[in-house]
Amino acid sequence: MKRILYVRHGESTANINGVAGVSDAQLTGKGAGQAKITGQHLKSEGVTTIACSPFIRARQTAEIIATELGIPVYELVTIDDLQERYLGEFEGTTGRPPEFFLNSDNEGGIESRQHMIERATRAIEKLKEITEEHGGTTLAIAHGQIGYYTTQVSKGRTRFEDFDPPSEMNNAEFVEIWRGE
What we know:
Layout: E1 3-8, H1 13-17, H2 29-41, E2 47-52, H3 56-69, E3 77-78, H4 98-102, H5 113-134, E4 137-142, H6 144-154, E5 174-179
Parallel strand pairs: 1-4, 2-3, 2-4
Antiparallel strand pairs: 1-5
Helix pairs in contact: 2-3, 5-6
């Protein structure tokens, strides 16, 4: 059976400080611990390949989980389309809840919903290619907003109006987003 699982990165310094975006935020000690626990939970899931966002917090999460699963870190695949949503003038700011960004569409230079849908579609196609090539289960590790879009697009939804109400995954939470033959 071929599958794709999706994991949101562990808690980052940006998460605890309420900072939006921030590509260089690293995992906290708690976030590293969350990644380790998630890796232990994933041992029975048949993960053969791990792909991740190029952002540091996703890469750190991927490395910790790979170590737990016995997958060499040098085999990690980076997929640029899994990077978090660009937040325009709100990048690096504080004081806005995640729901503000999930419900926004291009305000203040925030990456548009349509562009997010296009990126999520490309990411899923790349993840399917990897899964077909390697078999088994591919684990994608990235971020909350791209996770929301990727999950919705994987259900065949290509218009934001058809998406489930916006919600954000917990840190180090994993879900199945695709199952093949």
